[in-house]
Amino acid sequence: MVVQAFFVGVFGLAAIGFGVAVFRTASMVRSALALLFSQAAVGCMFLAMQAEFLGVLQIMMMATEMSIMAIFMVMFMMDPGGLGGMDMSHQKRFSIGAGAIAAATAISVALFSDWGPIVAEAPDAAMQTRELGFEMLGRSMLVFETAAITILTAMIAATAVAIPVRQPGVDTGKLDKGNGDKEQEASK
Amino acid sequence: MTVALVLLTLLVGAWLLAVIEAWLTTGRLRPVAPLLAGLSHLGRESILARKPDRLFFETAPVLLLVVAVLGAAVLPLAPDLVIADLATGALFLNAVLAYVLVSLIMAGWGPNGAYAMVGGWRFLGQLIAYSMLIVMPITATAMRAESLLNSAIVESQAGLWNIVYQPLGFVLFFIAAIALAFRSPFDLPTAPGELAGGVDAEYTGVRLAVLRLARLVMVITLSAATTVFFLGGWQGPLLPPWAWSLIKTLAVAVSMLLVGFYLPRIREADLLGWCWKLGIPLALLNILIVGLLILVVP
Amino acid sequence: MSEAATTLAGARKGRPSILRRWVGQALARNLSCLVVPGPEVALAHGLDLAAADMRIAATPRDATVLLIVGELSQKLDEATAVLYAQMPRPRAILVLGGSAPSSLPQADVSADLSQTELMEAATRLQRLLAEDAFAASPDDFDSSILQAKTEYVCPMHPEVVEDEPGSCPKCGMDLVAREAGGDSDAGEHDHDHDHEHHGHEHDHDHEHESEEHDHHHAHHNDHGQSHEHHHDHEHHQNHKRAHDHEQHQGDDDHEHAHCHEHEDHGHQQSTAQEQSGTEYICPMHPEIRQNEPGSCPKCGMDLEPHKPEEDEGVREGVPEHDHEHHHDHSGHDHDGHDHSDHDHDSSGFMSMVEVTKDLPRSADGLAMDWLEVPFGPCFPGLPGGLKLTLTLDGDGVTEGQATSLVAMNTSSEEVAVETFIERLAAAMPLAPVSYRLLACRAIEQAAGLEPDPAVERGRAAALERERIASHLGWLAQLGRQLSFVWLTRRAAALQLETQRADREQLVALRPALQSLIARLEHTPLLKARLKGIGALPHGSQDLRGPVARASGRTEDARQADAMYRELGFEMRAESAGDAWARLRQRHVEIMTSLDLVEVAGDPELPKLRAIDNPSGTGEATVETPRGRATLRLTQERGQVVSVELDSACSQHIGLVADLVEGQELGDALVAVGSLDLSPWEVTS
């Protein structure tokens, strides 16, 4: 119990620490990967709280997501290496306000919600997975199916929207492979 | 004790793989060569590029090695020979393998060089291609076992190995595993002929030794994963379970090497195209078929 | 003859100890060589590195030995110094068939250019490494070529590059220092920017916090494509309206006044701003405002005039038209026409899309940092001596340029005829027999000799044998480029056998060659890799050799040759004109050449026949493995006085720029490789 609390605390502090690093650094990739490790620390917190499936899932998803965020940051931002020394924080008052409000909300939710009766011992990981499965395909099926279809639609729409519109009749003299490839791939 | 045994297995496997790889490339069988190569790397100068991102540059090889070892930690070599038989073992393997991407992004960004950077980001494109093809076949095997426990997945193959039960899944997983280990024909991040070594380019000395070791251990881990998920793990007549595991793992690893030896590098656009237009529909089909088989066949 | 140094010039610093001796011995038994100019040159000279227990390294970082084959040109000499510096110590230099380059320390081992000498040299090198890998105080290697030059670039306009610090002519921003390396380390993120503006930022933050609030809200969120811009803009709008509602009581005058000046509802307060005249704002740091023009203290950019009344009219239009046209953002004719004068819209928010609208865009419409990356001169997969400079955006090539560092200098100095022939053959290591033949024919023609069929047969056979070897060498290079290890091994082995084979042995190689070709035609991913890649734009002039025949041009200098007609030569051509067609064309030519050798007889190296009239002007044409080459020379009394050489690769190297434009990097490199350029045959 004490050991568990200790680890939860350690990972929690790590998550906060990495989160702070996200904004302290001027390098885009460092920022993105700091966020990645912050989220991975949250995943480790889940593991320490014996929610094994959630923890592993969190760790897995964050790796891919944050890396993709990293490449987009590198593509679109000036000075992705951060050696130019630009100040990375913006809207200071707004963000401080928003942060304070969010923290207050989270803490009040944590303190004042009715979490139900405290279980003597958490079910083992295999049982948790089973019950998660039943939950997802039972009571929460509608929620997840809707979310999945929405995400899929968003993916397809974003891809379709990102394809440059080919001007009809313009012969760029370029080959089919290469720059035209992306259009071909996505339009098939 | 199990930890030591598993680590030893990984090292021996990596060594064997290095010997076989050298034999394929040069035609000479020199068992002592990888050890000499490792020793010579340890003695060479460690060069740091100009203005590197030091944190990433140093962390990347270590992270890759850690990923490979953690992946092996959840794979059972024998019913009692597994470091941590997690209840969500199959998912954990996936989670850990996702950090190969993080490691390569660090290795690409760290040295502050164009070749490494292009190599690192290319791997992200490669991940978009293979990532689903790793997860979905594992899902199908977990469906058959009705559990995410790796040992349960092995035991569910007692009557019929998954390679026969779901051959489509095996083929897709095998291909995706080679892509994950970024070996030929999917060696886009390191591309010796196009990027002068890509992410490997700027590493020398100790870091290069760790990187090379990590890559070999990664192949062993992925081969062990293929064995556990599709080849019935430790099951087999006559020989003790761990021997079967080792034989199968080595067989898969050597076949991965052979595939690389006899094929040229794939185009990135083709890889993405084939994986998304052919691979993922097939993986979904595989899940459908397995689901039907489980429900219909007693 | 061959000598060896007694100590290693590239030893690593360290007192020799037992562990270090073992490391040295491990290094010695695990020799990895970086071949300069390239492994294909070593193969062309008949060197089998694997037999000498040496492994070919792809990069200098991976190499222990710098293996120099033949004499190097001046430019390649300098490049070699850079390569040597990139190798980690302990490192050694092995020179075959020439003297050590002037920019490097003395060669550790040097030998003549032959396989036996190589084996001997390798043993000596091993001994040297085993004993002297570590030295207590080795000399450091430095060279003037390695000094990094500093250049100054504008962070927002990467095409602006100056040698002195100053301001960008386009936007006025301070230029930041960057190291301009000649090798691969020129990354885009090596700004050596002095953080002298940091202090300023902190001060300004304090004062202008409230203003930053509105400006940076959108500024921060809108670093992206314009459809993201749209979403956040809406956000911005909603937020502002809500905010105004709350703040309407004026508890924070600063923000209040500020918000109002940008509202498009025609608030009363806005007129106050109008009357105060134009303000000057920094596009990147909207909190910097002044009443007179100048430069921003944070970044040095020119301040832009900000006219509230103009912007207000515009603002109504902005969210709607972004909404409608956000998927058009790839076009240069961005619909931000309305505020095209300003890089930011009325709220002071700086849209990255607006700011970057003048930046060059690649074909997919994204404005990314363009990076100039050198590929060469000793790049694995490309012909050695070829320097390819590609401008990359991400992994696509926007423009490219190829130059040869080993081009032959056909300067006029009088040389004896025999010397001339030797020099020409030595200057073209990838096709020595062809150029020897070319020189002999030209000289004999100048001397007025008629071709002798008996001699011509042997010469034709030698030329065809070289063609086979050259195409096999190209296949090995293709294997290196595509990391197709089996192909490299097989083609290299066959090339070595072909080069020293007589007619019998060549005929005996037929099944092996046929099976190689058949296997390549059916290799699973090869066709997908090569098909459609490297197609030249229509109307490319002056293609020669296999490249021309693969595009359907029926041109082959051998058709005009009487001897070849006698041997039954028939020209074949493919039609597709892409890399796959060139591969098939070279396959076909290998088999054709084999047939010709079989008919012609034993190959004989071209030797100059006896000349009795050593004066005159002659011209000869030979179909070298890469295309038609023509030599025109004038000789007087046994001395060659003027030379004019026209070779295929001089024309082909100019095609590279068109070939790589707009391609993905891998495709671009494969396309360049498919041309089979020999940088030596480029005449400067």
TrEMBL record, chain A:
Catalytic activity as recorded in UniProt: a quinone + NADH + 5 H(+)(in) = a quinol + NAD(+) + 4 H(+)(out)
Membrane-crossing segments per the record: 6-25, 32-49, 55-76, 96-120, 140-165
Main localization of the protein described in the UniProt heading: membrane
Keyword line: Cell membrane, Membrane, NAD, Quinone, Transmembrane, Transmembrane helix, Ubiquinone
Membrane-related topology note: Multi-pass membrane protein
Molecular-function annotations in GO: NADH dehydrogenase (ubiquinone) activity; quinone binding
Family annotation (Pfam families): Oxidored_q3
Domain of life: Bacteria
Family: Belongs to the complex I subunit 6 family.
Known role: NDH-1 shuttles electrons from NADH, via FMN and iron-sulfur (Fe-S) centers, to quinones in the respiratory chain. Couples the redox reaction to proton translocation (for every two electrons transferred, four hydrogen ions are translocated across the cytoplasmic membrane), and thus conserves the redox energy in a proton gradient.
Name the UniProt record assigns to this protein: NADH-quinone oxidoreductase subunit J
Organism: Alcanivorax hongdengensis A-11-3
UniProtKB/TrEMBL annotation, chain B:
GO cellular component: plasma membrane
Record field: transmembrane: 55-78, 90-111, 123-143, 163-182, 216-236, 242-263, 275-297
Recorded GO MF terms: NADH dehydrogenase activity
Pfam families membership: NADHdh
Main subcellular location of this protein, as a coarse class: membrane
GO BP field: aerobic respiration
Membrane topology: Multi-pass membrane protein
Localisation: Cell membrane; Membrane
Keywords: Membrane, NAD, Transmembrane, Transmembrane helix
Family label: Belongs to the complex I subunit 1 family.
Protein name: NADH-quinone oxidoreductase subunit H
Species: Alloalcanivorax marinus
